[in-house]
């Protein structure tokens, strides 16, 4: 298998200047991800699962360690890559899927889904065509395609968001609880799309509240729970 | 050698009213303005026995240029016989001893307010135009310091914008007199409030035109054979006043710039604006000996 | 505690805009202290900071309205060379008119309030030498349409228009000559929230359709978050932090940035 990601000694904490203290998120994490591999992150609430995803995406800046990503341009350390390179990779090779849609006023559902394709240089008509297919797969009703998602219900917005986030096949995909509060049909569509992408060689790192949703996709589980015993109440929430 | 041999006897005033240093300054500024066509040169406008705004700028230039042989013609709105023209003509003759004339062809120097005669001026003639407001940028840039920078940078976008606005608001360019014109492809000038009819006469003309504003203390010039192009959009042609078809009710002459004279029955009669041209036409009709010069406009059209 | 970032390796194009080590004092007040900034082609750089942080001074310098005491400014464009602060007045004016567009917070700074709206846009084209009335009209209309200005008000003077419409006229004027760089100084401050959203949306569309490089200055974090790819945080004439927009908002490093982000409603 081709290596996509090689994480080594990654450390992240937050310095809160107004409280004058530092909160550790995770320390010295190392693992690798191959093309087409699906890695599930598990751990207690607060173990740093989402934080790790965001650090890999560089929404959070790591404090030590390296994240070597095999881009089409060669290996690059995401922990130290220039902002402009990160922005470029986000447009072309690295995706991030959350459950929240950043809707903008006066932009239709199909336009918002087509946007990543447009940014990747796909012609307008073709992009819209693919966008409509994606919306159909996620079960967004046809009469909503040209409407503005700002007014949609939470569930519908989430479907639009997934269609958008998964429309361009990426080399690396971060999934931050995309199934939360999704209806069964949409969940099935999501699993289908992820399976499709996985077959095409997309490496995925995911955080799922109910990993059962994507059970068949999981190749490997990484537990981020630190070496201390969380109290019982918290443990009840621990996934898997 | 005695001191009295070296000095002139006392006189009540210098020749031509202005003192020597005033004339020297004006000569220098005239040379400068000829050297940079259309560029306004400041000068220390002197007192003359006439109110500012009544042609003091033109008068100072005329007084500087005349000698006892210079034949002077003065017109006001085309007429030699209006009060202002007559007064200035008499004043120049009195202080400089010059001969005067009303015939454009006979004149060496023509001081004019708001018109250029209809007969073509020659290389040996000088036209002096009185200018009330020399700054074409004033309507778009009240700050004169900035306006001068704009001239220096040939930054005339705002002038064009003014024309754009007129077309947008009124469907046509509304600028009547003082039509802004580009001189020698470099400086935009206001050609004093001559009608649009007269602006093409300045283009590549044989004579020298000096424009002088006494109140504003600015002098500028259009040297002979210099391009003067009214600012126009490439697709909106320059239009002169529609006087080509009008006939002078007194002289019967046709195809020249006319004065409109409202009649009691609410119609209008028209009289040729260049009064001496009208007089000549009448004389010719009455078979008097008269020399008629070639005119700029032929059959109401300015030849290309 | 943070890692220093490498120079760009994937994006090999040079930055379109590069301001280097700019300092400026007004008497005893140091408005800018050794400030550097850059923006890549098609990128939106947001500059945030409180009043007096020097962000507007920096933007005015990018529009060549002011010269720093020291520092340099380059634009990577064909036939634009050297430190732009060294250009003479004439060259500056031509460069600003043809390559840089600006939208001011106060429309009075950018517009002739009593001229027609289309005339305001046409002026740019006139400065660049366009002399056909029909072309001027067509191009002005096109730019106003792209700024989503109602075309039935084409010739209304800005003084009769609402604040949001005035900003659209400014925007149309700024983009009429398809500039390489669009500068926005608090473009939506002072507008109603609903109007603000519409103007922001127009800006976003323009940016995506035309791939214009933008620098937007605002104290409104919402505006910056909506538009900017990368954010520069300024305080007392200095840059305290720069980073990707989502990183600045989600994981601010500097104490001042944290304070700023947490102060957001």
Give the strand order, joined by hyphens, for the main sheet of chain B: 1-8-7-4-3-2
Largest sheet of chain A: 5 strands, parallel
| Total DSSP helices of chain B | 8
Strand count of chain B: 11
Structure classification of chain A: alpha/beta
SSE order of chain B, as H and E? Answer: HHEHEHEEHHEEHEEEEEH
Largest interface pair: A-C, 36 and 34 residues
N-to-C span of chain B? 64 Å
**What is the global morphology of chain A?**
globular
Number of strand elements of chain A: 9
Which range best describes the helical content of chain A: under 10%, 10-25%, 25-40%, 40-55%, 55-70% or over 70%?
25-40%
The total domain count of chain A is 2
List the strand order in the largest sheet of chain A. 6-7-8-3-9
Low-confidence stretches of chain A: 228-240
Helix content of chain B: 25-40%
At the fourth CATH level, what is the homologous superfamily of the largest domain in chain A? P-loop containing nucleotide triphosphate hydrolases
Features:
heterotrimer, A: 240 residues, alpha/beta, Rossmann fold, five-stranded parallel β-sheet, four-stranded antiparallel β-sheet, 7 helices, 9 strands, 32% helix, globular, disordered C terminus, C: 265 residues, six-stranded mixed β-sheet, three-stranded antiparallel β-sheet, 10 helices, 23% strand
Describe the structure.
The complex is a heterotrimer of chains A (240), B (304) and C (265). Chain A has 240 residues and is α/β, with parallel strands linked by helices. Chain A has 7 helices and 9 strands. In chain A, strands 6-7-8-3-9 form a 5-stranded parallel β-sheet. A 4-stranded antiparallel β-sheet of chain A has the order 2-1-4-5, covered by helices on one side. In chain A, helix 3 packs across helix 4, helix 3 packs parallel to helix 5 (154-165) and helix 4 crosses helix 5. Chain B folds into 2 domains: 20-230, Bacterial phosphonate metabolism protein PhnH (Rossmann fold, 3-Layer(aba) Sandwich), CATH 3.40.50.11310; 241-304, no CATH class. Chain C contains 10 helices and 9 strands. Chain C has helices at 55-62, 89-99, 107-110, 117-127, 133-146, 163-175, 193-210, 221-227, 245-250, 255-262; strands spanning 17-26, 29-39, 44-48, 70-75, 100-103, 181-185, 213-218, 230-235, 238-244. In chain C, the strands form 2 sheets. A 6-stranded mixed β-sheet of chain C has the order 5-6-7-3-8-9, with helices on both faces. The mean pLDDT of chain C is 91. The chains are: A alpha/beta (240), B alpha/beta (304), C alpha/beta (265). At the A-C interface, strand 1, helix 2 and helix 3 of A face helix 7, strand 9, helix 9 and helix 10 of C.
